[in-house]
Amino acid sequence: MLKNIKSCISPDLVKILMEMGHGDEIVLADGNFPAASHTKRLVRLDGNETPEILEGILHLMPLDTYVEYPVSLMMHGVEVSRPSIWQVYEEIVRNEENHFKAQYLERFDFYERAKSAYAIVATSEKALYANIILKKGVVTE
Amino acid sequence: MLKNIKSCISPDLVKILMEMGHGDEIVLADGNFPAASHTKRLVRLDGNETPEILEGILHLMPLDTYVEYPVSLMMHGVEVSRPSIWQVYEEIVRNEENHFKAQYLERFDFYERAKSAYAIVATSEKALYANIILKKGVVTE
Amino acid sequence: MLKNIKSCISPDLVKILMEMGHGDEIVLADGNFPAASHTKRLVRLDGNETPEILEGILHLMPLDTYVEYPVSLMMHGVEVSRPSIWQVYEEIVRNEENHFKAQYLERFDFYERAKSAYAIVATSEKALYANIILKKGVVTE
Amino acid sequence: MLKNIKSCISPDLVKILMEMGHGDEIVLADGNFPAASHTKRLVRLDGNETPEILEGILHLMPLDTYVEYPVSLMMHGVEVSRPSIWQVYEEIVRNEENHFKAQYLERFDFYERAKSAYAIVATSEKALYANIILKKGVVTE
Amino acid sequence: MLKNIKSCISPDLVKILMEMGHGDEIVLADGNFPAASHTKRLVRLDGNETPEILEGILHLMPLDTYVEYPVSLMMHGVEVSRPSIWQVYEEIVRNEENHFKAQYLERFDFYERAKSAYAIVATSEKALYANIILKKGVVTE
Amino acid sequence: MLKNIKSCISPDLVKILMEMGHGDEIVLADGNFPAASHTKRLVRLDGNETPEILEGILHLMPLDTYVEYPVSLMMHGVEVSRPSIWQVYEEIVRNEENHFKAQYLERFDFYERAKSAYAIVATSEKALYANIILKKGVVTE
Amino acid sequence: MLKNIKSCISPDLVKILMEMGHGDEIVLADGNFPAASHTKRLVRLDGNETPEILEGILHLMPLDTYVEYPVSLMMHGVEVSRPSIWQVYEEIVRNEENHFKAQYLERFDFYERAKSAYAIVATSEKALYANIILKKGVVTE
Amino acid sequence: MLKNIKSCISPDLVKILMEMGHGDEIVLADGNFPAASHTKRLVRLDGNETPEILEGILHLMPLDTYVEYPVSLMMHGVEVSRPSIWQVYEEIVRNEENHFKAQYLERFDFYERAKSAYAIVATSEKALYANIILKKGVVTE
Amino acid sequence: MLKNIKSCISPDLVKILMEMGHGDEIVLADGNFPAASHTKRLVRLDGNETPEILEGILHLMPLDTYVEYPVSLMMHGVEVSRPSIWQVYEEIVRNEENHFKAQYLERFDFYERAKSAYAIVATSEKALYANIILKKGVVTE
Amino acid sequence: MLKNIKSCISPDLVKILMEMGHGDEIVLADGNFPAASHTKRLVRLDGNETPEILEGILHLMPLDTYVEYPVSLMMHGVEVSRPSIWQVYEEIVRNEENHFKAQYLERFDFYERAKSAYAIVATSEKALYANIILKKGVVTE
Question: Which keywords does UniProt give here (chains A, B, C, D, E, F, G, H, I, J) (predicted)?
């Protein structure tokens, strides 16, 4: 553990966040996502839910401001209402980045996008529609 | 994730619990324990607290009934009262094993014992005196 | 060994079942299947027959309910009657999942499907037509 | 699988049996033996019982005739009667080697002996007192 | 060394023969064959000639009876008479399998076939036209 | 790069700082220190001087408050005056930790201590007497 | 450290520069460049800026004189004036090589070019437009 | 060192020459050749010139007599006269093989050919046009 | 294969012979010797007998002339007459080295000596008393 | 190759020289020295003689001025006159370092010292008494 880094952010995850550069993407996958079969760089964070990880990551890593949608979410089937977890994500993102601009990908488009990401974080999140991709922005000291 | 296994119990941890035999020990170390420097088989469970991991482990692994003390705790300096986390541990253990028999080791004796254990689980537990060692018992189908 | 996990389910196999996500597939291959040449993730369970492994897996892992056929079997040449092992499989699956919905693949289609699976379990099953592929479903605690 | 090799004898086990020379020892450990912590060369044969493995090994590997006791068994506590599994072992050994000469080691002496063996085979044997060590003899074509 | 396995069959070779399944192929390459550049699974048996290895393999591994030609030989240039080593091979194969059905491949077709085989055994055979590919059959205990 | 982490703190270094626990030590070695021969966990930070690294580390990692001297410096021969770099270190430490309590080790005692540290950071620091060892304290969120 | 090699040039970097041959390229990437995802041979020089590294490299490695542009720079968006860092680069190059001949690549062309380079050096350079690719020339003693 | 093997032929190089078969090729590259980026099997012989290596290799390895040109040389630009190193090569080859039959490849054709060779030997040869590829022939005792 | 190297001398064996220096020892072990458990550098030459390997090695490697006994043999039990294989060894050694000076070690002294040798060659030699250790001498071109 | 580094100094050797710190030692061993068995960090420079390597190293690495004898040579038996290679070494060292201060170690003391050195360079030097150990000094830019 270190000061100013949330305890759910593991050593491997910080290392990976630091190695990522402008435009690289990271996937926060829920507990049922086929993470191991869709990446060569897997970080397991068993027992953790996505919101606290998202918060811990955004405290360290800025989102990309050069693209229209630095956030990607996974659409799924016919949805009645907006998943409540998206609202949670939006608040966390707005808290760090002021605005929340997300695009929505079909399940299999999301899978393909995940495959080309820099890394996938496998959480134990149980909420539906909870998968999210973040694109790293430029760090300025 | 699988049925009947708590989500905080990672794939690596289950594999290690299965590999362990009668008399092998596993350490649940708090977030400040020097885990990486005291074992060659390290399982990190960042972001998790010890009680839920203890519960998840005991749901799968019996404690040793051939020894007097299948549980070891770490004493620390001059203690005013019994740490509340010990009470939590006792209840979890009693729930699975009926009785709770623990010995208390001085800090450096605990460190030495941890070094010879089969594995150390590094949690993010923040309670004081929360380190605990479990000795595996005999599994009978 | 652990409580509630059948002894034929090895530590590596449990680890792999846990790593798999929704939609990932696992092959239970008979003793003559060219398993090592058709996967990069091989689990050998020499000396074991498929039914007990199938039972042990389904006790831990749900089948996919989002697809029509979560089970795939390998057709072979001109068959006179339904292989008796299929009846055994059907009963085991029904026992855990209530229904049994299987598709039948030609030998070389089955081989191709096996190659893209997450893992292959090499058993010593000697019954004919005993190869089977399972698609993992969603785990809800 | 190959002709004349029992299906419970895995590829790794045959390789190890071939690499062993005159005087090297192999341990057949029951399902609760702390195998992984007592060897650097571990062969897991989950789901198998010891008698069939013993039979498969002796079909390939002769016992040492240069020592008094090519077989070692593990004593345990105060025994009322001779464990029935020992009778099974004796018959299997006599079948291949004509005679059965075994020594009996205390639990911790057995553990030490196991540590210096060439390899340990971890079975799922559930019988009590089922651990056994075999010393390889000279192969003459 | 083990009973009933010829001493020229190395531990690695037996392990590979056991891992192979129905339809997998193995190449016995002569001393000048570019073996290392045509496979990722190479077994060197320096100092050995092919006939004794062929005999040792067929004693353990059945040939495929589901295909017309379980044996492949390498044609080479304009041949005056049938190479005498082929007669040796035919006798060894007939001894174990009753019949000898071989197809003949041009040099570069043979090379391509060798590349997709499960393994190549590099012998020190010096006879001309001595390269041979074997397709594994079904093992029934 | 990440927010709130100085750019001289490399991904590997942060990972190591996170893995360290209470009481583990890290050495900041100058450019001529025999670092590679005195540790199995080496972090090279070529081109960097020690003060900025010290500052970057202390921003993340607290020093141990359970020991008298959480800081160790290397004495060297007959010194006329206190090395100016020690003054720099003292200010940086006081800035983060309020007090600066250091012990002084003879050259070869320092080498031995370095060997048992968790890691050594090899800098390009050119100042004399610039080697320094830090003992990690307890992190409380 | 060694004589005549600047301290920011790490052991790994010198090794890589020596392994490179005529026509091989190396990328000096700024602190936000997605370096790890665009190369299999990554040298991190955290905490260093590009000009001193460029100077250290050119002191050891000649540029290619067989091509028109041994230097490549990354264009970016609509530029008002020439980035001042380019002037710094030009002076350093001219100092060693007499002339400075650079081509300018669009961002994504630059990324593709970087992928096929022999190595990428990840610096902590913060200036804009600071990425640069060098093509190695012929060394004559 | 061994009897009858020149001291410039390293252990790794002999091993590679032995592993090569009929038709496999090896490249002797000069000191500026981009060797590491054009092969996965690299032998460095720093400090050595090509003629002595060529002599050492041909003392052990015959050239291919089944092809028209067992030797390939790299053409380069507009040449006034035949490079003197080619005369040296011709004499060394004739000494072992009686005749010298070489083809000449354009620079980039030579690079492509080098990539598909079994190995590249990186020498410190400084003569121009000194790169040479050898095709191994059949060894008959 | 290469010219002037016997085909039973494998690529790995030549590499090891070249790496050995003055005073390093190599063991030629018979088919029943516990080779794998007595060395970390094992060369298997299954299917080969020791005399031809001895001959092939001595053709390349001189014996040590600085010690009284460059050859060590293994005594065994009460011997009636000199083993005939020793006569074979003596002739092969005399052929290359003019004289044959051997010491005789008790079985367990031989085992200890083998453990400290540079490498062990595991042959399939079946003659009794056939184990032999060679000490490498000085190579002078 | 790079500017100002002699071509006999390989990439691995420069990397090792850079990693070494004040007081670390490097051995230049002649062609018959048992180098591989006396170090875990071996650099082979087959085909090269020691003087040119010594010159190349001293051009980059200063000798230790804090000890009486930064150079160690290997005595051997009864010597009539000073080996001529020592004179060569002395001149090379004086050329870079002004003075030449060497101690002389008995053969087996030299071997022990070599074992604890940072690395051994295996040359093909054939002169007698040519082994030499260098102790690295402090680099000041």
Answer: Isomerase
DSSP E66: S
Chain F residues inside the 8 Å CB shell of A7: 141
Please spell the DSSP secondary structure of chain J, one letter per residue: --TTS-TTS-HHHHHHHHH--TT-EEEEE-TTS--GGG-SSEEE-TT--HHHHHHHHHHH-PBPSSSS-SEEEE--SS-SS--HHHHHHHHHHHHHHS---EEEE-HHHHHHHHHTSSEEEE----STT--EEEEB-----
Cα E114 from Cα G84, distance rounded (Å)? 59
Interface contact flag, A47 B11, Cβ < 8 Å: no
Q: Which two tokens stand for residue H62?
A: 């015959």
Specify the amino acid at residue H133.
I
Residue I52 with chain H: CB contacts under 8 Å: none
- Res A98: pLDDT: 87
Are J and H close enough to touch, i.e. 3+ CB pairs under 8 angstroms?
yes
With touching defined as 3 or more inter-chain CB pairs under 8 Å, the answer for chains J and G is yes
- Rounded to an integer, what distance in angstroms lies between the CA atom of residue C65 and that of residue I29? 60
Size of interface D-I (CB pairs under 8 A): 27
- Is B128 an interface residue toward F (CB < 8 Å)? no
Q: Do E9 and I46 touch (CB under 8 A)?
A: yes
Say if D42 falls within a structural domain.
Answer: yes
For G121, half-sphere exposure in the C-beta direction (CA atoms, 13 angstrom radius) is: 34
Q: What is the ipTM, given to two decimal places? A: 0.96
Does the residue J45 lie in any domain? yes
Q: Is the pLDDT of residue C77 over 90?
A: no
E34 — contact with chain I (CB < 8 Å)?
A: no
Spatial distance between the Cα atoms of C89 and C97, rounded to a whole number of angstroms: 12
CATH of the domain at G59: 3.40.1650.10
And the tokens for E40? 């990722």
Look at residue J6 and tell me if it is in a domain.
no
In one-letter notation, the amino acid at residue G69 is: Y
Residue H69, amino acid: Y
- Asked if D36 has any chain B CB less than 8 Å from its own CB, the reply is yes
Confidence of residue G128 (pLDDT cuts 50, 70, 90): confident
Q: Which of H81, H5, E4 is nearest to J31 (CA)?
A: H5
Give the pLDDT score at G75. 83
- For the stretch G86-127, pLDDT in tens is 999 999 999 999 889 999 999 999 999 999 999 999 999 999
- Cα F87 to chain centroid distance, Å, stands at 14
Q: Which domain holds residue A52?
A: 22-135
Rg (CA), chain I: 14
Backbone angles phi, psi at F17, to 5 degrees: -60, -35
Distance from C-alpha of G19 to C-alpha of G6, rounded to nearest angstrom: 19
* Tally of domains within chain B: 1
